[in-house]
Amino acid sequence: MLAFLRSHPLTVAVHLLGILLAWRVLVTRRSPQSLMAWFLGLLVLPWAAVPLFMLFGARKLPRKVRGKHRPLLPPGGHAVLPDAHPAADVPRVLRTEGVPGVRTGNAFELLGTGERAYDALHAEIARATRSIDLTIFILGDDEVGWSVVHTLAERARAGVRVRLLIDAVGSRLIRRRAAEALRGAGGELRVFMPLLHAPLKGRTNLRSHRKIAVFDGRRVFMGGMNVKFEYMGPTPRPGRWKDLACLLEGPVASDAEQLFAADWAFAGGEETPPPTELPPLAGQAVVQLVPSGPEMKTDTFYDVLLTALYSARSHVACVTPYYVPDDVVQHAFVLCARRGVRTELVMPARSNHALADNARRGLVAELSEAGAVLHWYDRMVHGKAMVVDDTVAYLGSPNLDMRSFFLNYEDALLLYSPPEITAVRGWITALRDQCSTTQGPPSRRWWLIEDFARLMAPEL
């Protein structure tokens, strides 16, 4: 036996490493599907599972990297919601997770169409005099994507510091030519999480799904829209997806600026000194920027979602393009409906990802049986937003799926003040009124596809 082990040291090493990694999987917070798949693979097929786990398996950065590149907390001035505020539990939970605090004194404008978002983004780029920092998941290789690149290049030639951060997978078709165009004008483009990178720089499946632009450190464009013709454009276009973004001005811009700075440094850019003072007050909106992702110790958006759902008393209205949550979030929505909270979800009848649509079939059937009202839009909806009891709302980049909960770098904006919450609820209501509330029950003949899609849900 000893002779066998000595003659096969690599085999022994791989199996021991598989056992160690399987133990690590068991003690990390994962969905049951992901946990079981990795655990069995590492024990039974370590030759294949070990290298795959090194590339894709870990969902939190090593402590050294996380501590260096986590979002930096800007100067003071955080507000605290009064204990009597119905949503006070949400920022109270976040206070323990190292995210920026509640900010008062902001101006907020909801951008409910792709045309308004396109015009606002271009106007803010043209208006910037000092700096433009833009991070985006998909920069389209089309007229919309190139119009933004050319406008950024113009501002760079005018002496504005322009930094563009794009995801290596989402923007792979345009990144080389866009980098040449920007660098030739004096701007800079960096790629987030290249497919080939040092192990300590993250994992290939940890993508940046964030969509944030910061102008002069004072104004912010953010939401769920990518820079591509499906999401936005100068004129209405048949079939354009329903999506949502917003413009902000005020102290919260400092949080967005520091979030971008942390991502920029992680992608190989220079370290940016934190601001020494907050931007001036610009309005009455009470908001909170919530980054979520591998650089955070906890799953911040996931915790926000569960806290809000468990505190719901009268109604929950939600829009999402993909509904593939884990069992805990699914049960929270089910319990909302069962305890008499009016629970409404707006989704596309058919999204652009067939696997995600199949994965949700059993989940939405359970929601419907519990009393939730499902609204089906006849075209693609890409907006991500939720309102709970008219006391808290969010919009941003996270989908209601396990990839957004546990893998992606995401950002969400929490709204605590009535005018802003009302604006988001109005957008959801207008979209809901264009929907059908009926859909045929899931057919049992698709059970194998549905089960396979649910198994793959953590990576969708």
Could you explain how this protein is built, in words?
The chain has 16 helices and 16 strands. By secondary structure, it is of the alpha/beta class. The protein folds into three domains: 56 residues, no CATH class; 205 residues, Endonuclease Chain A (Endonuclease, Chain A, 2-Layer Sandwich), CATH 3.30.870.10; 160 residues, Endonuclease Chain A (Endonuclease, Chain A, 2-Layer Sandwich), CATH 3.30.870.10. Strands 4-3-2-5-6-7-1-8-16-14-13-9-11-12 form a 14-stranded mixed sheet, with helices on both faces. Strands 10-15 form a two-stranded parallel ribbon. A hairpin with a 3-residue loop joins strand 5 and strand 6. The radius of gyration is 22 Å and the shape is globular. It starts with a helix and ends in a 5-residue tail after the last helix. About 2% of the residues have low confidence.
Write the layout of secondary structure elements.
Elements: H1 2-7, H2 9-26, H3 32-44, H4 46-57, H5 63-69, H6 89-94, E1 103-111, H7 114-127, E2 131-136, H8 143-157, E3 161-167, H9 175-185, E4 188-192, E5 212-215, E6 219-223, E7 245-249, H10 252-266, E8 285-292, H11 300-311, E9 315-319, E10 323-324, H12 327-338, E11 342-348, H13 354-370, E12 373-377, E13 385-388, E14 392-396, E15 400-401, H14 402-406, E16 410-415, H15 418-432, H16 447-455
Parallel strand pairs: 2-3, 3-4, 9-11, 10-15, 11-12
Antiparallel strand pairs: 1-7, 1-8, 2-5, 5-6, 6-7, 8-16, 9-13, 13-14, 14-16
Helix pairs in contact: 2-3, 2-4, 3-4, 7-8, 8-9, 11-12, 12-13, 13-16
